[in-house]
Amino acid sequence: MDDQAGSDPDGTQQTGWLASYFGFDKHGTTLTRELLAGLTTFLTMSYVVVVNPAVLAGESGEKPGIVLNGYTPGEVRQMLAVVTILVAAIAILVMAFYANRPFAQAPGLGLNAFFAYTVVGAMGVPWETALAAVVTEGVLFILLTLVGARKYIVRLFPTPVKFSVGTGIGLFLAVIGLQEMHVVVDDSATLVTLGNIASDPIALLSVLGLVFTLMLHVRRVKGAIIIGILTTTFAGYGAEMVGLVGSGTLTPKIPNPTYDITPLLGAFVDGFGNVDAFAFSLIVFTFFFVDFFDTAGTITGVSQMAGFLDEDGNLPDIDKPLMADAVGTTVGGMLGSSTVTTYIESATGVQEGGRTGLTALVVGVLLLVSLAIVPLAAAIPLYASHIALVVVALMLLRNVTAINWDQLSHSVPAGMSIIIMPLTYSIAYGIAAAIIIYPAMKVAEGQWRDVHAGQWALAAVFVVYFAVRTSGVLQTVV
């Protein structure tokens, strides 16, 4: 097939329907650049196929998350790997053909941890109800995107809250990852402490794997995270093979391959039964808030790199990529996964010259091809997959520089949000705490007129929620 149409910046004549459909001339790109960009983005974010199932799948009495009666955790992880791939591919196809942007999407880290550890674990909500909240959030996102309500939503949330979420989520992910790696363990006196790294094979291998992965990341090796996960996994199997540790110490029991996702398909419908309206609303609110600003922030940041922003710093037709996110989230909840978001790893493809939806399309196709290695999701130990959470956490910490630390009415709510998230194991509580304290700080500075009426209303609602939630009146949320 001839891939040329018009002329690229180097003078090469380009013809072909791909160039015409995706607008290579308009965006100053070529087929070769788009293909390379798509491959690069795929390599840097492919870890999600392994990590998302590892976070979402639960183990009775051991780890909160999705637990299916009659199925082992390994089998559930394989199901979730299939779902992860399908959901990401659907969202990316919408991004490619509807939005024509080089952004890749998949179930987001942080939101999947909130789903498993906070909603299902700490709040005791059935995973089916958590999926119902995801679907509800997705539908709301679609409706609000259709009517162009984004600017009103942005106005409603205090600026320090928006700027602190990324850092708070980073610390939240770091705690989860380090605990699964046995680097951080429970302690009756100090709540948490350093694990027995030198004597615990899992902790020792995890630390070595993390250092190796970070070295690759610092060297800007494409696919550093997935390479680190796989290398750590192979080292675990190798250590058992040569007799350094006993069988089963570093490796999970591998179940038979399964691609049947029917136990997850449509489970959200049952989740709407016997729902506590207020608690359910809080869950939906948190999914929506983090998803909305994470996606909008990532899209804006990557768009700046690509030169997509206008003179006012806005992305023209931003509602189109937001719609891809909304559709992916809705379908994801229906199939059995947590909220979809745009991945910051899309920036790597943009750096390689990706400028159109073809870059995203390549990522989607490669994800579908990876269905062939779904059984790998169950073969990778949790300590190896959770290395990704720590690496991503370190990348998210850079968001702290966006906070105006010199303005106390800005830094105090932001700081509270960052502190509360990891210490309460809840993104929702961190956001809520910041929303409550923001108006009070503005009043203290004599700037109460700067507080929007909707912000006062949100603060009042969360005060009531915390009063009910922590007084013992609300013993269960479902």
TrEMBL record:
One of its GO terms (cellular component) is plasma membrane. Its main location: membrane. The keyword Nucleotide-binding does not apply. One of its GO terms (molecular function) is purine nucleobase transmembrane transporter activity. The chain crosses the membrane at residues 35-58, 78-99, 106-124, 130-149, 161-178, 198-218, 225-245, 265-290, 356-374, 380-397, 418-441, 453-474. It is a multi-pass membrane protein. It is found in: Cell membrane. Keywords: Cell membrane, Membrane, Transmembrane, Transmembrane helix, Transport. It comes from the Archaea. InterPro entries: Azg-like, Azg-like_bact_archaea, NCS2. Belongs to the nucleobase:cation symporter-2 (NCS2) (TC 2.A.40) family. Azg-like subfamily. This is NCS2 family permease. It comes from Halocatena salina.
